[in-house]
Design goal:
Blueprint (H helix, E strand, L loop, with lengths): L1 H31 L9 H8 L4 E3 L16 E5 L31 E5 L5 E5 L4
Antiparallel strand pairs: 1-2, 2-3, 3-4
Length: 127
């Protein structure tokens, strides 16, 4: 029984640390985004912002009317957890993980690239 409580406490501490790190990541990315300019390369963006949370690339050879994803390459920087809507009054009552199926979340920092792998647009959430 004592081992079970130690394991539970360890897991609780791990969840708190991961959540705290995740909560700090998104605002720092938004502050650093000011240094990203249209025309910057992928390497310059990665050096400035680090590895993206999620990478979205357009699919090839799919009829345009049937495609729900992105049409340009987008690097999304944001949190992994949705802490504002952590507890719901409907099923699935507790689902704190952000799901990005067809593109970035609304509050993600987005860096869009053109066909020459250069930054074409930077979208900072809240601006």
């Amino acid at each position: 029984m004592k081992q079970l409580s130690i394991i539970g406490a360890g897991l609780a501490i791990l969840v708190m640390v991961v959540t705290a790190v995740d909560a700090r990541r998104a605002p720092r990315s938004a502050m650093k985004a000011g240094g990203i300019q249209v025309g910057d390369s992928r390497e310059q963006v990665r050096a400035r912002l680090g590895r993206p949370t999620e990478l979205f690339r357009p699919r090839q050879n799919i009829p345009s009317g049937m495609y729900l994803g992105v049409h340009v390459e987008i690097w999304a920087y944001g949190g992994l957890f949705e802490l504002r809507h952590c507890f719901w009054s409907e099923f699935p009552y507790f689902y704190p993980i952000k799901v990005r199926l067809f593109g970035p979340a609304r509050d993600d920092l987005r860096v869009e690239f053109d066909s020459w792998s250069r930054v074409s647009r930077v979208l900072v959430p809240g601006t």
